[in-house]
Amino acid sequence: MKSTGQPTINDVARIAGVSKKTVSRVINRSPLLNQATREKVEAVIAELAYVPNPQARALALRRNFLLGLIHDNPNAQMVLNFQEGVLDAIQGTEFALVVRPVDRHSPSLFDDIRKFIEQQRLYGVMILPPLSENDALAALFRELGCNYVRMGSAPLDDAAHLVQSNDRQAVRDAVAYLVAQGHTRIGLVQGPDGFRSAAERELGWHDAMEAAGLPHGPDLMARGNYTFETGREAGGKLIDAAEPPSAIFASNDVMAAGVLHAARGRGLDVPQDLSIVGFDDTAIATAIWPPLTTVRWPIRTMARSAALKLIDPEAASGEQSLFPTDFIARASVAPR
Amino acid sequence: MKSTGQPTINDVARIAGVSKKTVSRVINRSPLLNQATREKVEAVIAELAYVPNPQARALALRRNFLLGLIHDNPNAQMVLNFQEGVLDAIQGTEFALVVRPVDRHSPSLFDDIRKFIEQQRLYGVMILPPLSENDALAALFRELGCNYVRMGSAPLDDAAHLVQSNDRQAVRDAVAYLVAQGHTRIGLVQGPDGFRSAAERELGWHDAMEAAGLPHGPDLMARGNYTFETGREAGGKLIDAAEPPSAIFASNDVMAAGVLHAARGRGLDVPQDLSIVGFDDTAIATAIWPPLTTVRWPIRTMARSAALKLIDPEAASGEQSLFPTDFIARASVAPR
DNA sequence: GCAATTTGGGAAACCGGTGTCAATATGTGC
DNA sequence: GCACATATTGACACCGGTTTCCCAAATTGC
After folding, report:
1. pLDDT of residue A1
2. What stretches of chain A show up as alpha helix (H) in DSSP?
C-alpha cells in the first residue's frame, strides 16, 4: 500500500477489480473490450488522476517517446520557431522534445552526437541546417538505426527524411522583383561556403540575372558567413566597387542588416541610393530602419511536418515536403 | 540470442562471465568490488560499446534524467543561450534537456504544465521569465513534488530555487554612466506591467536619477512591452514631449532599437542629438547602427548554475545565485 | 588450526508497463 | 441439450536495469 507517489497501473487494476492487462487495454484503446469494463476502469483512472509512466512504457515497447533536435544554427529566432513548430505537432501526444545544441566545428562532433543518440535512444531526430547538409552525419544516423528528418534548402535525401523550402525559386522571384523596379546592377552577398542554402540562394540570383539579361559577374558578388559583421564587410566591398550596384540581395537578414550598416557608414540613403533585400524574415528584418524587404519561409509549419514524419511516417507520407516561401515587400527597396 | 539492437546488461554479464548485479556495480562505481573483476567487466563494456538503457534505469530508480525548460519569452536569443548554458551543465552526464514553450496567456496554461510534468516525470524544471515570476506556478510545482529553479531579476524565492541577476543595480550603474556623460534629462522606456524585470529596471533608473538630483517624473517615462513596435511608440512619445530628454534608457535592446527608429524618423542623429542605452546585449545590439550601449547579463552561466541546482543541490548550494552584469559601452551614447 | 569477520558476488524480487496465450463466459447452429 | 465459434479477460513472462538478501571465499585473530 503505497500512499506516496503517483498511482500506478496496479493501483488502478486493484481498485477497479480487474487485471493490469485490462487497464493496459483501456489505455491503449484496444477494441476487444467490453464497454462496461472500459467505463469502470476509466472512472477509476479519472478518479486517481492516473497517468501511465512513460519510462515503463518505453521499456516494454522498446522505444521511447523522445524527439531530438540537433542544431548549430546562428539564427536563434529560427531555432526557436522550429521548436515551437515541433511542439505544435507533439501537443497532446506523449512525445517530448529534447534539444541538443552542438558545435559543428568541434572535432568530437560525431562522437558527441553518437553518444547522445545511443544514450537517450531517441525515437527520432531532426537536424537543422547547416548540420542537416552533412551527408556523413545522415549516414551516422542510418548506421545507428535512428530515424531522422533533415531540414534543408534543397534536395538532400528522399522525401521521407526531409522537409525543405525552395530557396532557389524564392531568390529568383525576389531578384526579379528588383529587376521589375528598374534595377540593372544587382549585387549579391553570398552565404558561407559549405552551406547548401547559400549555394541555392546564389543560384537563384544567378537565374534571375541571366533571365533578365543583366550582368552577374564576380564583381557583383561578395561572400559573408551569415553574420552581421561579414555582411557589413561584403556590402562595403560591393559599394566601394568601381561600378557599384543600385541594389543588393543578401543571403540572409543579418547580413542584409550589415549591408545597410555599410551603406549608412558611406553616407548612402537606403532605399534611395541603395535597395536591399534579405532572406528569412527574422525579427531583425523589422527591427532596423528601413524595414527590410525579405523572404519568409514557413519554418514553424515545416517543423510541424518534420515532427510528424518521425511520429507517424505513414500519415505524413501524404504531406508535402517542399514548402513555399513568401516574398515580403518592405521599405528597403525603392524603384530605380 | 539477440544480434540486433544495442547490447544490454545481460549481454555484458554473460560475456564477462559475471552476474547482472556485478555489471551494475561496475556501472555505478560501487566500491566493494574486486579490481580484477571491475577491469574484466569494463573491457567487455568497452568492447560491446554498451550503454545502459536510461528508460530501464529511470524505471528502477523511480526517477528519470530529464530536465525541463518551460518558457514563454519573446527574446529568442536569450532562450537559446539559456539552452546552451544548461547543456554546459549536463554535458557528459546522462541528463537531457526537454523544452516546452508555452503561451502564458492561454487559459489552459496551468493544466498544460501540470500535464507536462506528470506525463514526463521530469527530474526538475527550470522556468524563465516572465513565467518565473508567477508564484502560483511555483506553488504548482511544489504541489506536484517537482523540483524547480526559477530564473529572475529579483528575489522571488529561496536561493535553492533561484538564479538571478541584479537588474536594479545594473540599471542604476548604466544610468549613472549617462549622468557622468553630462545628460540631465534622461528618459525611461519601461517594460510591460507584470514583468518583475521591468519593475526592477525602472527602480534602477529611479535610484540613479534621484541620487543625481535629476528629474524623474512621469513626463520622462513611457511604457512598452518589450517589443520593437512598442519601443518605437514609447520613444516617439518621449521625443515629442515639450521638454524632450537628451538620453533614453530602454528596458531592453529591442525597445532601444525601436527608440532609435523613432529618433531617426524625426531627423535626430544618434548619438549626437539623442543617446540611447538598452538592456540584454542580444544580437540586435550590434546589428543596428550605431551599435547599442547596453547591459549584458551572464545568461549562459546562470543557466548552467540553474541546471546544477537541479542535478546536484548539495554541490550547488555553495554556488552563487546572484549574478553580476556587465556594462557594455558602445557608440549609441555621446557626451552631452 | 579453527572460529570470527570481512569481502566479493550471485539469486530473486521489483520498478510499471506490454505481449502471448490460455481460460472463461456467451452466443450459435443443429 | 451439445459441439463449436466468439468475445472478453486474466496469468505469466518479459523489457533492462536496481535493490535486498544471502552465501561462499578470503582474511584475520587467537
Report:
1. 39
2. 9-16, 20-27, 35-48, 54-61, 76-90, 109-120, 135-144, 167-180, 196-211, 228-239, 253-265, 284-287, 299-311, 313-316
Q: What is the pLDDT of residues B34-59, one digit of tens each?
A: 888 888 899 999 999 999 998 999 99
> Taking residues B175-187, what's their average pLDDT?
98
Q: Does the CB of A99 have a partner CB in chain B at under 8 Å?
A: yes
Q: Tell me the percentage of chain A whose pLDDT exceeds 70.
A: 97
DSSP conformational letter for B318: T
Omega within 30 of 0 (cis) for the link into A215: no
Mutate which: A48, A82, A99, A111, vs B, most B CBs within 10 A: A99
The DSSP element (H or E) to which B163 belongs, if any, is: strand B162-165
Helix (H) or strand (E) holding A67: strand A66-71
Q: pTM value?
A: 0.87
**How far in angstroms lies nucleotide D3's C1' from the CA of residue A187?**
89
List domains and CATH numbers for chain B: 9-48 (no CATH), 60-166+300-323 (3.40.50.2300), 167-298 (3.40.50.2300)
- The answer to whether strand D lies under 7 Å from the CB of residue B106 is no
Q: What is the mean pLDDT of residues A55-77?
A: 89
Q: Looking at the complex, does the CB of residue A94 fall below 8 Å from at least one CB of chain B?
A: yes
For residue B237, the surrounding DSSP H or E stretch is helix B228-239
Residue-wise pLDDT for A8-22, tens only, equals 999 999 999 999 999
- Nearest nucleotide by C1' from B16 CA? C9
Alpha-carbon gap, residue B72 to B93, rounded angstroms? 27
**Is it the case that residue B2 has pLDDT exceeding 50?**
no
Chain A contact for B164, CB < 8 A? no
